[in-house]
Write a structure and sequence with these properties.
2 helices, single chain, mainly alpha
Length: about 120
């Protein structure tokens, strides 16, 4: 969930920076050839900066995964006995309800249909 939001935000920052740089160079007073050279240099610089930022984000995500994995595994192990106990209680309750329904069904059958045959 967060990865998509972070990715969108970083993409927006990168695109905004690139657009700002291009507009800054275009509106600066310079000849066409020099403007194209500056655009090319600026583009290369921001592509490199974007790559570095992407690598930093990927490293941070990997580090977060490494830290979170043991915690998640511990939570799974800790919650498993409670889950099993809950499932067992639900199954027992289900059996009790079935038995009670069967008992009530027999009681009603005897009460209302015992004299009709």
């Amino acid at each position: 969930m967060c990865d998509k939001n972070e990715s969108s935000f970083l993409s927006g920052v990168a695109i905004g920076t690139l657009i700002g740089a291009v507009l800054g160079v275009l509106y600066a007073p310079a000849h066409g050839e020099e403007t194209r050279r500056k655009l090319k240099e600026t583009g290369k610089k921001y592509v490199e900066k974007g790559k570095e930022t992407l690598e930093d984000v990927q490293d941070a995500v990997e580090e977060l995964k490494l830290k979170a994995t043991p915690i998640i595994n511990d939570l799974k192990e800790t919650s498993e006995p409670a889950r099993r106990a809950l499932v067992e209680k639900i199954e027992n309750l289900s059996e009790e309800v079935k038995a009670k329904v069967k008992e009530e069904k027999e009681t009603l059958r005897k009460k209302y249909f015992s004299g009709t045959r």
